[in-house]
UniProtKB/TrEMBL annotation:
Stretches assigned to the Fe2OG dioxygenase domain: 40-148
Domain of life: Eukaryota
Protein name, UniProt field: Fe2OG dioxygenase domain-containing protein
Entry-linked PANTHER family: 2-OXOGLUTARATE (2OG) AND FE(II)-DEPENDENT OXYGENASE SUPERFAMILY PROTEIN-RELATED
Assigned protein family: Belongs to the iron/ascorbate-dependent oxidoreductase family.
Alphabetical UniProt keywords: Iron, Metal-binding, Oxidoreductase
SUPFAM superfamilies in alphabetical order: Clavaminate synthase-like (SSF51197)
Amino acid sequence: MWPDGHLRFCNTIHTMATQIEELNKLICLMLIDSYGLGEKWESVMINYKTLVRFMKYMAPPPREYERGLFAHTDKPVSTIICDDQVSGLEIEVKDGQWMKLSLSPSSFCFVVGDPLKAWSNGRLKAVNHRVMMSGDKDRLSLAAFAIPVEGTIIKAPKELIDEQHPQLYKDFDFMDFFLFAFSDPAKHIDSGEQLQAFASLSPPISY
């Protein structure tokens, strides 16, 4: 895009990515504390790196309503989304209905990924979401994905497993799951069911 580079732009993006990473860490710490694990946060926090991606969804032809991004659950631990106020992001609610999100200009959307759902032993839900475009404006958004470092094992803390909440998923290497989710066999599995197909315990295990 810029053969000679664009230092100011790069510095701006680096600063924003750093701040979003801090926001994600704060949210994760709040989640950990909400489960009474605040004093053990260092041992239960998933170590990750942040991948920032810019996305552009083109406006559809006049008077048409079309898919900009297929329905899916996220495969990173979590995602923070910032958009340009052109609506399009939708989440699936009960009975297969879809709800369009309308975010305020200064807000971010935090999306739980499949690994975080497994870490929480099913307490957190990885919401099915998509982008549907209408109107005459393109949609620009920024997504910051929390990608676990190499060798990270996703496992539920023992404090989140008991008779009322038996262990739902086996411990697994994040990268093994990530590669499975984009493999040929997984193409025939609904995105929201891939975690279940890869790591479910049947029957669940209680301690």
